[in-house]
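re: ur question from the group chat, yeah i did fold both. here u go
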Amino acid sequence: MNASGPKERATFSIAADVKSKLEAVVPKNERSRFVEKAIDQALRDVAIRNLQKTLDEIRRPATAEESGSEFLRRKRMEWDGRPIDVLEGRHE
């Protein structure tokens, strides 16, 4: 077990040319870690794109009385149902 938790085997296929490049560049004993980091980064990129899409689709209120921070705080409360003092760390 390491800092990221226990390891599990995964079986998937990759293109032969990608496999050849991986084997040419990354030493055998470092490939699992290399692939794990690449997958983790790709998943983070997907999450960021999804968040950007969500933020782009949010309709702003008609009035300009609410600041951007206040608007996002209100939307966050609507999404997860937690009161503002919990979101701000003042209460659990």
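okk and heres the other one u asked abt
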Amino acid sequence: MDSQLIEIRTGGREAVVDLTDEIAAFLRSAGARDGLLNVWVPHATAGLAVIETGAGSDTDLLAALRDLLPADDRWTHRHGSAGHGRDHVLPALIAPSMSVPVLDGSTALGTWQSVCLVDTNGDNPVRSVRLSYLPG
């Protein structure tokens, strides 16, 4: 198994960050053929999603999360910035891990699919993502 921890800078704002380039580089360096890619976010306030990016879906996702998880004072968990408790609920809805099939050295995603980091927590401008390749 090959594994690598990558650092993603979100800039301290809500973000959906496309990991396609980082994943492709990792799979090349791992000499990947067929197998599984596991993606893991070791944070209590971020998750991973497979979505289309660049056509507004990433913005729509953040807007939907703002509607579903408002950044206000309703949350019991209250440390950090106002409404930070919602960030701790996020990984229950946007899972912190996923597995993606790898075929012939590339992810077997659909044409418009990208693996993305989803981060609503503006208190942490730098995130880690663990990529692990498991040969088939």
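fwiw on the second one: The two ends are 10 Å apart (CA to CA). The chain has a mean pLDDT of 95. idk if thats what u expected
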